[in-house]
Design goal:
With 233 residues, the chain is an alpha+beta fold. It contains 6 helices and 11 strands. Strands 7-6-5-2-10 form a 5-stranded antiparallel β-sheet. It has a two-stranded parallel sheet with strand order 1-11. A two-stranded antiparallel ribbon has the order 3-4. The longest helix is centred in the last third of the chain and has 27 residues. This is Lipoma HMGIC fusion partner-like 2 protein.
Length: 233
């Protein structure tokens, strides 16, 4: 067993891990769509915050906006901005609360994250083991990452296809239809998902150069000289 580390393989492994974390974060974000109206909500007062409220009050008012993600939402409850899952019964939640196409999107994106996690673990292991049954680890992981990109893309499309649902109509306005969110704006969660998809695609494309870098003539020469640990940065 050899330990081989090159600049391209290190970059590939790093991007594999970062892209997986990015999509995992996006799924749990409640800010894929942000509502058009804002309102006063109560927030905890920090020691450094100056407000017009009495010094004895532990709270102060801030402006908040409702939002929704593929699994979580934020809205005003008892004066406070509350963020949590609207899928109270998981995938069995009524489709009026959790649109059916969003359920499909959530399953696909979760599957994509699972595949990405497995490929990231394989990528980390590629430092020590570059092939499995004579098949390149880089090629296998790159193909898996390409599959994850496809799952992510379909998941995001399913989310946009659900913009005509009652939940989105209440948030964004009666003109909301599939793929048109009316008065709502795209939130940070949706941009995070888009960035993660692009990053995963770039990672899949980088698997080939990383494979060639670990099997280059320079690496082979050092292995022939009896080196068990090879660094080419």
């Amino acid at each position: 067993m050899y330990f081989i580390l090159t600049a391209k393989s290190l970059l590939w492994v790093t991007l594999s891990v970062v892209s997986t974390i990015t999509l995992f974060t996006a799924i749990y974000s409640p800010k894929w769509l942000v509502g058009p109206t804002d309102y006063n909500c109560i927030s905890s007062k920090s020691l450094s915050t100056e407000t017009n409220n009495t010094l004895d009050s532990p709270y102060y008012e801030v402006r908040c906006r409702p939002s929704v993600g593929i699994y979580y939402r934020c809205k005003k409850i008892n004066g406070h901005q509350h963020c949590g899952s609207f899928a109270v019964e998981g995938l069995a939640t009524d489709s009026l609360m959790f649109p059916f196409v969003w359920k499909i999107g959530l399953v696909l994106m979760s599957a994509g994250v699972f595949v990405s996690f497995l490929m990231s673990a394989m990528a980390v292991g590629s430092f020590c083991k570059q092939s499995i049954r004579k098949k390149s680890v880089f090629g296998i992981a790159g193909s898996g990452q390409g599959l994850a990109v496809l799952l992510y893309l379909i998941g995001v499309i399913c989310f946009a296809a659900g913009w005509g649902s009652e939940r989105v109509v209440v948030l964004c306005g009666t003109q909301s239809v599939p793929f048109v969110s009316a008065d709502c704006t795209n939130g940070s969660g949706l941009y995070t998902a888009a960035f993660g998809i692009v990053l995963t695609f770039a990672t899949a494309m980088l698997s080939g150069p990383a494979d060639r870098a670990t099997s280059s003539d320079k690496v082979a020469l050092q292995l022939e000289q009896g080196e068990n640990i090879v660094f080419l940065l």
